[in-house]
Protein backbone atom coordinates (compact mmCIF):
# COMPACT_ATOMS: atom_id res chain seq x y z
CA UNK A 1 0.00 0.00 0.00
CA UNK A 2 2.85 2.41 0.83
CA UNK A 3 4.43 1.68 -2.52
CA UNK A 4 1.17 2.61 -4.30
CA UNK A 5 0.91 5.84 -2.32
CA UNK A 6 4.47 6.75 -3.26
CA UNK A 7 3.76 6.11 -6.93
CA UNK A 8 0.63 8.26 -6.76
CA UNK A 9 2.52 11.05 -5.02
CA UNK A 10 5.32 11.01 -7.62
CA UNK A 11 2.78 11.02 -10.44
CA UNK A 12 0.91 13.98 -8.93
CA UNK A 13 4.16 15.92 -8.61
CA UNK A 14 5.36 15.15 -12.14
CA UNK A 15 2.07 15.76 -13.98
CA UNK A 16 2.13 19.59 -13.57
CA UNK A 17 5.73 19.62 -14.81
CA UNK A 18 4.79 17.62 -17.89
CA UNK A 19 1.81 19.89 -18.57
CA UNK A 20 3.99 22.98 -18.21
CA UNK A 21 6.55 21.49 -20.60
CA UNK A 22 3.84 20.81 -23.19
CA UNK A 23 2.51 24.37 -22.92
CA UNK A 24 6.02 25.82 -23.14
CA UNK A 25 6.89 23.90 -26.30
CA UNK A 26 6.90 26.08 -29.42
CA UNK A 27 7.47 25.25 -33.10
CA UNK A 28 10.67 27.34 -33.09
CA UNK A 29 13.83 25.27 -33.13
CA UNK A 30 16.68 27.33 -34.58
CA UNK A 31 15.89 30.96 -33.78
CA UNK A 32 18.02 31.25 -30.65
CA UNK A 33 20.24 34.31 -30.85
CA UNK A 34 18.29 35.82 -33.76
CA UNK A 35 18.74 39.59 -33.58
CA UNK A 36 15.67 41.73 -34.16
CA UNK A 37 16.02 45.17 -35.78
CA UNK A 38 14.85 48.12 -33.73
CA UNK A 39 11.43 49.63 -34.27
CA UNK A 40 7.89 48.46 -34.81
CA UNK A 41 7.92 48.16 -38.60
CA UNK A 42 10.36 45.93 -40.48
CA UNK A 43 9.96 45.47 -44.25
CA UNK A 44 11.81 42.47 -45.67
CA UNK A 45 12.48 42.46 -49.42
CA UNK A 46 12.78 39.01 -50.92
CA UNK A 47 13.58 37.23 -54.14
CA UNK A 48 10.41 35.16 -54.52
CA UNK A 49 10.74 31.40 -54.82
CA UNK A 50 13.58 30.50 -52.45
CA UNK A 51 13.62 28.18 -49.45
CA UNK A 52 15.96 30.26 -47.34
CA UNK A 53 14.31 33.69 -47.24
CA UNK A 54 10.90 32.56 -45.91
CA UNK A 55 12.82 30.40 -43.41
CA UNK A 56 14.77 33.49 -42.29
CA UNK A 57 11.52 35.42 -41.84
CA UNK A 58 10.25 32.47 -39.81
CA UNK A 59 13.22 32.87 -37.46
CA UNK A 60 12.38 36.55 -37.06
CA UNK A 61 8.79 35.58 -36.27
CA UNK A 62 10.04 33.13 -33.64
CA UNK A 63 12.33 35.76 -32.14
CA UNK A 64 9.38 38.12 -31.68
CA UNK A 65 7.46 35.27 -30.06
CA UNK A 66 10.33 34.35 -27.74
CA UNK A 67 10.55 37.96 -26.58
CA UNK A 68 6.77 37.88 -25.99
CA UNK A 69 6.21 40.66 -28.51
CA UNK A 70 2.86 40.52 -30.33
CA UNK A 71 3.48 40.54 -34.08
CA UNK A 72 1.61 40.75 -37.36
CA UNK A 73 3.08 38.98 -40.38
CA UNK A 74 2.08 40.97 -43.46
CA UNK A 75 2.19 38.97 -46.70
CA UNK A 76 1.87 39.96 -50.35
CA UNK A 77 -1.51 38.32 -50.92
CA UNK A 78 -4.87 39.82 -51.96
CA UNK A 79 -6.96 41.47 -49.27
CA UNK A 80 -9.85 39.30 -50.47
CA UNK A 81 -8.07 36.30 -48.88
CA UNK A 82 -8.16 37.82 -45.39
CA UNK A 83 -11.20 35.96 -44.08
CA UNK A 84 -9.71 32.64 -45.20
CA UNK A 85 -6.41 33.57 -43.54
CA UNK A 86 -8.21 34.44 -40.29
CA UNK A 87 -9.97 31.08 -40.36
CA UNK A 88 -6.65 29.35 -41.10
CA UNK A 89 -4.95 30.96 -38.11
CA UNK A 90 -7.76 29.96 -35.75
CA UNK A 91 -8.44 26.45 -37.03
CA UNK A 92 -7.24 23.81 -34.55
CA UNK A 93 -7.06 20.98 -37.11
CA UNK A 94 -3.88 21.26 -39.19
CA UNK A 95 -5.23 19.54 -42.31
CA UNK A 96 -8.39 21.66 -42.32
CA UNK A 97 -6.31 24.80 -41.78
CA UNK A 98 -4.00 24.04 -44.70
CA UNK A 99 -6.98 23.38 -46.96
CA UNK A 100 -8.43 26.80 -46.11
CA UNK A 101 -5.28 28.48 -47.42
CA UNK A 102 -4.64 26.30 -50.46
CA UNK A 103 -8.19 26.73 -51.76
CA UNK A 104 -7.84 30.53 -52.03
CA UNK A 105 -7.42 31.90 -55.54
CA UNK A 106 -3.75 32.86 -55.42
CA UNK A 107 -2.72 29.44 -54.14
CA UNK A 108 -5.06 27.38 -56.34
CA UNK A 109 -5.77 29.32 -59.54
CA UNK A 110 -3.16 31.96 -60.21
CA UNK A 111 0.20 31.45 -61.88
CA UNK A 112 2.38 29.12 -59.82
CA UNK A 113 5.24 31.53 -59.15
CA UNK A 114 7.54 31.71 -56.14
CA UNK A 115 5.14 33.70 -53.99
CA UNK A 116 3.05 30.56 -53.43
CA UNK A 117 5.96 28.22 -52.76
CA UNK A 118 6.18 25.37 -50.29
CA UNK A 119 8.52 27.55 -48.22
CA UNK A 120 5.84 30.26 -48.05
CA UNK A 121 3.28 27.68 -46.97
CA UNK A 122 5.70 26.54 -44.26
CA UNK A 123 5.95 30.16 -43.08
CA UNK A 124 2.16 30.41 -42.91
CA UNK A 125 2.01 27.15 -40.96
CA UNK A 126 4.66 28.41 -38.53
CA UNK A 127 2.63 31.58 -37.88
CA UNK A 128 -0.45 29.45 -37.20
CA UNK A 129 1.43 27.09 -34.87
CA UNK A 130 2.77 30.03 -32.89
CA UNK A 131 -0.77 31.39 -32.54
CA UNK A 132 -2.08 27.97 -31.55
CA UNK A 133 0.62 27.77 -28.86
CA UNK A 134 -0.60 31.03 -27.30
CA UNK A 135 1.60 33.61 -29.01
CA UNK A 136 -0.05 36.82 -30.22
CA UNK A 137 0.51 36.36 -33.96
CA UNK A 138 -1.75 37.61 -36.75
CA UNK A 139 -1.54 37.18 -40.53
CA UNK A 140 -2.42 40.10 -42.81
CA UNK A 141 -2.95 40.09 -46.59
CA UNK A 142 -2.12 43.58 -47.86
CA UNK A 143 -2.38 43.58 -51.67
CA UNK A 144 -5.35 45.60 -52.95
CA UNK A 145 -7.97 43.82 -55.05
CA UNK A 146 -10.02 46.90 -55.93
CA UNK A 147 -10.24 48.08 -59.52
CA UNK A 148 -7.88 50.73 -60.85
CA UNK A 149 -9.15 54.15 -61.91
CA UNK A 150 -8.09 55.06 -65.45
CA UNK A 151 -4.83 57.02 -65.83
CA UNK A 152 -5.06 60.73 -66.68
CA UNK A 153 -2.24 60.61 -69.23
CA UNK A 154 -0.56 57.72 -71.07
CA UNK A 155 3.02 56.63 -70.53
CA UNK A 156 3.17 56.82 -66.73
CA UNK A 157 3.75 53.84 -64.44
CA UNK A 158 0.26 54.43 -63.06
CA UNK A 159 -0.68 50.85 -62.25
CA UNK A 160 2.47 50.34 -60.21
CA UNK A 161 2.05 53.69 -58.44
CA UNK A 162 -1.49 52.74 -57.48
CA UNK A 163 -0.48 49.26 -56.33
CA UNK A 164 2.34 50.58 -54.13
CA UNK A 165 0.10 53.24 -52.59
CA UNK A 166 -2.60 50.66 -51.81
CA UNK A 167 -0.10 48.30 -50.15
CA UNK A 168 1.31 51.11 -48.05
CA UNK A 169 -2.18 52.25 -47.04
CA UNK A 170 -3.12 48.74 -45.86
CA UNK A 171 -0.01 48.36 -43.70
CA UNK A 172 -0.40 51.87 -42.27
CA UNK A 173 -4.03 51.10 -41.38
CA UNK A 174 -3.09 47.84 -39.64
CA UNK A 175 -0.41 49.65 -37.66
CA UNK A 176 -2.99 52.20 -36.51
CA UNK A 177 -5.37 49.36 -35.55
CA UNK A 178 -2.65 47.42 -33.69
CA UNK A 179 -0.26 50.03 -32.23
CA UNK A 180 1.14 47.61 -29.62
CA UNK A 181 2.18 45.02 -32.19
CA UNK A 182 5.39 44.63 -34.14
CA UNK A 183 4.80 44.58 -37.89
CA UNK A 184 6.86 42.20 -40.05
CA UNK A 185 6.26 42.75 -43.77
CA UNK A 186 7.46 40.25 -46.39
CA UNK A 187 7.32 41.60 -49.94
CA UNK A 188 9.16 41.44 -53.25
CA UNK A 189 12.46 43.26 -52.93
CA UNK A 190 11.63 46.18 -55.26
CA UNK A 191 8.70 47.13 -53.01
CA UNK A 192 10.94 47.18 -49.93
CA UNK A 193 13.23 49.97 -51.15
CA UNK A 194 12.65 53.22 -49.29
CA UNK A 195 14.50 55.44 -51.75
CA UNK A 196 12.74 56.96 -54.77
CA UNK A 197 15.08 55.60 -57.44
CA UNK A 198 12.39 54.03 -59.68
CA UNK A 199 9.79 55.47 -62.06
CA UNK A 200 7.23 54.60 -59.39
CA UNK A 201 7.40 55.12 -55.62
CA UNK A 202 7.89 51.84 -53.69
CA UNK A 203 5.66 50.90 -50.79
CA UNK A 204 8.51 51.20 -48.28
CA UNK A 205 9.36 54.70 -49.54
CA UNK A 206 5.75 55.80 -49.09
CA UNK A 207 5.59 54.39 -45.55
CA UNK A 208 8.94 55.95 -44.63
CA UNK A 209 7.46 59.38 -45.35
CA UNK A 210 4.87 58.77 -42.63
CA UNK A 211 6.57 56.75 -39.88
CA UNK A 212 9.84 55.08 -38.86
CA UNK A 213 10.66 52.13 -41.14
CA UNK A 214 13.49 49.61 -41.12
CA UNK A 215 14.16 47.67 -44.30
CA UNK A 216 16.09 44.46 -44.79
CA UNK A 217 17.41 42.90 -48.00
CA UNK A 218 19.53 39.93 -48.98
CA UNK A 219 22.73 39.30 -50.86
CA UNK A 220 23.89 35.95 -52.14
CA UNK A 221 26.71 34.41 -54.15
CA UNK A 222 24.41 32.21 -56.22
CA UNK A 223 20.76 31.26 -56.27
CA UNK A 224 18.19 28.93 -57.68
CA UNK A 225 14.71 30.40 -57.34
CA UNK A 226 11.30 29.32 -58.61
CA UNK A 227 10.32 32.07 -61.03
CA UNK A 228 7.99 32.57 -64.00
CA UNK A 229 9.34 34.20 -67.14
CA UNK A 230 8.42 34.85 -70.74
CA UNK A 231 5.66 36.58 -72.71
CA UNK A 232 2.13 36.31 -71.37
CA UNK A 233 1.11 33.53 -73.76
CA UNK A 234 4.32 31.53 -73.26
CA UNK A 235 5.13 31.81 -69.56
CA UNK A 236 7.52 29.20 -68.24
CA UNK A 237 7.81 28.58 -64.49
CA UNK A 238 10.55 26.61 -62.84
CA UNK A 239 13.78 26.57 -60.87
CA UNK A 240 16.02 29.21 -62.43
CA UNK A 241 19.68 29.92 -61.78
CA UNK A 242 20.33 33.53 -60.77
CA UNK A 243 23.75 35.11 -60.51
CA UNK A 244 25.34 36.86 -57.52
CA UNK A 245 23.40 39.64 -55.82
CA UNK A 246 25.21 42.58 -54.27
CA UNK A 247 22.88 45.26 -52.93
CA UNK A 248 23.85 48.88 -52.47
CA UNK A 249 23.74 49.97 -48.80
CA UNK A 250 21.44 52.79 -49.92
CA UNK A 251 18.70 50.35 -50.92
CA UNK A 252 18.15 48.76 -47.50
CA UNK A 253 18.91 49.62 -43.89
CA UNK A 254 20.18 46.12 -43.18
CA UNK A 255 21.56 43.40 -45.43
CA UNK A 256 21.74 39.68 -44.69
CA UNK A 257 24.11 37.51 -46.72
CA UNK A 258 22.99 33.98 -47.59
CA UNK A 259 25.70 32.21 -49.62
CA UNK A 260 23.35 30.04 -51.70
CA UNK A 261 19.61 30.17 -52.24
CA UNK A 262 17.68 27.02 -53.17
CA UNK A 263 14.49 26.98 -55.22
CA UNK A 264 11.20 26.20 -53.49
CA UNK A 265 8.55 24.80 -55.86
CA UNK A 266 4.85 25.70 -55.62
CA UNK A 267 2.83 24.29 -52.76
CA UNK A 268 0.14 23.46 -55.33
CA UNK A 269 1.43 22.14 -58.66
CA UNK A 270 -0.40 23.63 -61.65
CA UNK A 271 0.25 24.95 -65.13
CA UNK A 272 0.46 28.67 -65.84
CA UNK A 273 -2.68 30.07 -67.40
Q: What would you report as the Rg, rounded to the nearest angstrom?
A: 21 Å
How many helices?
8
Top-tier CATH class = Alpha Beta
Shape type: globular
Annotated CATH topology:
Rossmann fold
Strand-pairing-aware structural class: alpha/beta
User: Kindly state the mean pLDDT as a whole number?
Assistant: 85
Share of residues in strands:
15-25%
- What letter string, H or E per element, gives the SSE order? HEHEHHHHEHEHEEEEE
Low-confidence region ranges: 5-24
Cα end-to-end separation: 74 Å
Largest beta-sheet characterization: 6 strands, parallel
The domain tally reads 1
Question: How many DSSP E strands?
Answer: 9
- The percentage helix is 25-40%
Characterization of this structure:
The chain contains eight helices and nine strands. The radius of gyration is 21 Å and the shape is globular. The protein has a six-stranded parallel β-sheet with strand order 3-2-4-1-5-8, sandwiched between helices. The chain has a three-stranded mixed β-sheet with strand order 7-6-9, with no helix packed on it. α2 runs parallel beside α6 and α3 runs antiparallel to α4. It is 37% helix and 20% strand. The protein has 273 residues and is α/β, with parallel strands linked by helices. The model is unreliable at 5-24 (pLDDT under 50). It has one domain: Rossmann fold.
Question: Which properties best describe this structure?
Answer:
single chain; 37% helix; 8 helices; globular; 273 residues; Rossmann fold; 6-stranded parallel beta sheet; alpha/beta; 3-stranded mixed beta sheet
